[in-house]
Specification:
By secondary structure, the protein is an all-alpha fold. The chain has helices at residues 2-12, 24-38, 45-72, 86-99, 108-119.
Amino acid sequence: MFRLVALTILIFSFSSNALAERTGNELLRGCNAIIADIEKKDMSVDEVTISIFWTGYIAGYLDSSVLYETLTKTGAYCIPEKGVEGGQAAMIIANFLKNNPNQLHESARFCIFMALADAFKCK
């Protein structure tokens, strides 16, 4: 029920700023919230809302990436055949951003790309 309330708050909190480009700083905060949720840590409504938003953002990115790779038969990284779960992706991305703080000002989608390219190099 708590998650439903948080999701409702998230949906109705969108404004014109919601469409602004997200940064690596926001992405790292989101990944940390996802990881806290996976680890069953106590979370505020704000943290749950952030976790839900970024879970969807990362899932959308991964789905688009797989679709692009399938359609073009090319890709800058090679995700395993069984795919990558959202929690795993959040951990990979968070680890990459913690090790590369010089990327935090970049767009979230660029940071996700760089993290996946670093984690899933093609052979």
